[in-house]
Amino acid sequence: MVTATFDLNRAGEFCAGQLCWEGEALTVCLDGQEQARYALSDAAQLNQRTDIGCGRLELCLKGLDDPADSLPLCRFSMRRAEEIGEFCKAINYYLKYGEAIQPKQEQPRICQKCGRSLLPGMRTCFFCADQRVLWRRAWRMLGNLRPTLLLGMVLMLLFNGINILVPLINRWLMDHVLMDGGALPAGLSRRDALVLCCVAIALSYALGQGLLALSNLRIYKSGAFFADRLRCLIYDKVQNLSVSSIQKRTVGDLMKRVTQDTRQVRMFLNNMGRACLEKLVMLLVVSVILLATNWKLALCLVLPVPLSLWLFRRFWGSLSIFWERFWHCESRERGILHDIIKGIRVVKTFGTEEREVAKFAAAASRSAAAATRNERYWALLMPVPRLAMYASELIMMYLGGRMVLKGQMSLGTLVQFTLFAQYLFEPLRWMARFPRVLAETNTSLIKLYEILDEEPTVPEAREPIRAEIDGEVRFEGVQFGYKPYEPVLKDVTLTVAPNEMMGLVGHSGAGKSTMINLVLRLYDPDNGVLKIGGHDVRDYDYAFLRENIGVVFQETFLFAGTVFENIAYAKPGAAPEEVFRAARLANAHEFIIALPDGYNTFVGEDGHNLSGGERQRVALARVVLKDPKILILDEATSALDPETEQKIQQALERLVQGRTTIAIAHRLSTLRHANRLAVIEQGSLAELGSHRELLAQRGIYYNLVMAQRQMSTK
Amino acid sequence: MESGLRMEFVPVGACRFYRNARGFLGLELDGRDYRRVSLRRALPFTAPERYICVADMEDKEIAVIESIEAFDESQQALLREELGIRYFYPVVTAVKSVKEKMGSYYLQISVGAHEMNIAVKDISKNIRQMEANRLIVTDVDGNRYLIPDVYAISKKNLRMLEPYLY
Question: Which residue in A196, A294, A467, A547 has the most C-beta neighbors within 10 A?
């Protein structure tokens, strides 16, 4: 039995509904009760329609093609769209081929624990991730860096221990050496004792700093190496992920994960992780010493501090809202400025400068107001915890002073208290900040693990083959959609013979580029098989397959480097003659040789500006050098002037010799050398044949050609 | 001039909407019977009841309605119902909490008796303030939620949303 959940009733209220498919029966249940039952033997297909913020599922009966006669099955919110899309696809496959397939389990993107929505492409809820697991895993990944890190930590503890010695020596100095009537060990003069104390303090400082330096070295080293290791792991993973999982995330997001998230982890190890241990130990030891020395005084020192910290954290919530608002006002202001500057020509031609200035001024004054409000609260709030600390110090001074005057406590003890107070406040102040940093590091770790754990959606075959590819490309009943509820290719069966040039024609969005994405195995078909050289593409060794396919896109990407390097990218270590020959074949040699730096011209983002046609020819040369069995031209010659286009056409004609070529072009004249043309219409193959045959058919292709002719004669 | 370039509103008297046997919206216009049509708002946020395009199931425009209010009551009800099916904006009755985590926002909201959690990414784009106090929130799955009047839900809720309003 296959089920899917829907969550809206007909009136658009949330409900708990379920679709069940078992054998030939499709039932619709609402709140556990069967509402309707349909026999699949009467059904032609299921149609999923997407409205705005919701969708619906309809059943199209046999012989009733008009959508007005469909049976409405259910409505659902977009949260269920993917799940229902998979369900719909499985049933349609069954209706078409009579074979029951298990739909892909599309879990609704909801955290199983807390019910919060998950972001697309994420499987872990930021709120619910088990933090211990996170850190245990990080600990394992540290591997051989662990001893270094531990040594650093131990040295850090020693440094702290020595630090604590200083106030204790101070106290002894005060009570036994400087005060009248202090009891000195026998045989020691006061002067000697003073010198001894100073030397001891100096020594402990020196030793402490030495230990600190050693410990820092160890910890920084392990932090840096760990971050480096993480970064390499992530980068490696990103390179190996399939396009679909990369496209789920933006380039910015991936870059952020590789650089920023690893940096966050390193920073934590370097600063916070170390400090955390240090401060905690310090807090504990100092508190114990203080309480043991004089618990009353210790309490009045310690108590007000958490109180003020608590206050501060309470206000932090509302404070952050002000910050947030300020941040938005500012980013809006920046956005307006960005718009005006980028669109300055439009602004000038429409003469709307004044209106734009007014718009900007309004945004600017809003953000100024937000900033003022912000600062006011900040200024009023900031002194609170500080005052509390000063107050507790003052109270301690007063009470301690009274005790000294009454002779209940020695002066040295008071001095020790004031010194330790500093030791105490620092960790406390720091503790207020710590949870935030810990949370940030946790999220960084989650994001890193997400990438590391990603299963490629285009998995490599278990025993990949590297068989000779003869160049035949065959689509057999291929169905595919980027989203389960939006099929792009509905049912494509098409064979491209070896060394044939096949042109793909059709309206934009018909599915031509998608077919090419499948040939390149950037995605795998949902149903049906794509065969290259008689083997399923999924059986091929990934790299081997790509080696045998060359692509020329409309947009040409050149890497930062020289022209030579860019051409030789396809074949590292290619001899100059080979590169020159490839460039000549691609009609690129002429213009390259005319450049002042010839093949050594630096191109890429900041390099020499090649024109679109020139870049295109460099890219062509790259493909020539690759010498692939299968060549794919995706709008390779659009957006070029006629003369350049002719040069590239010429190069292409040479290039397609002895290769299977699949070409997409909107300008039909560029496909005149194609052996056959396939017209793709709404995800299916509509017409197939040579240019002449298709014209004679007077179908879609004929209309396209006529429309273009009209355009060019006008 | 080509007919497609003219922008003419269909006369109220010339068309009659009805529900067909399957419950879909149909339209009789100029003696022709369109058995199933779909409605599209030209200005869904700023003028939800005006400038409604009527299209057939092949997405071809049949007519444009200037204003729903010009129709008689039963036709109005029919049109509103159909628009309500196509444009699904659950009305948020309370915002329980707003939390930020790594640049995305997690809102706990009530839609009538139904409580739910939604995640909103890129809030400057996905929390849109319409005229005055109306907000439309789009979550990561593509659902939209309507807050008809931010100032009508309690002050505490407002404070949580305030930073995101311009």
Answer: A294
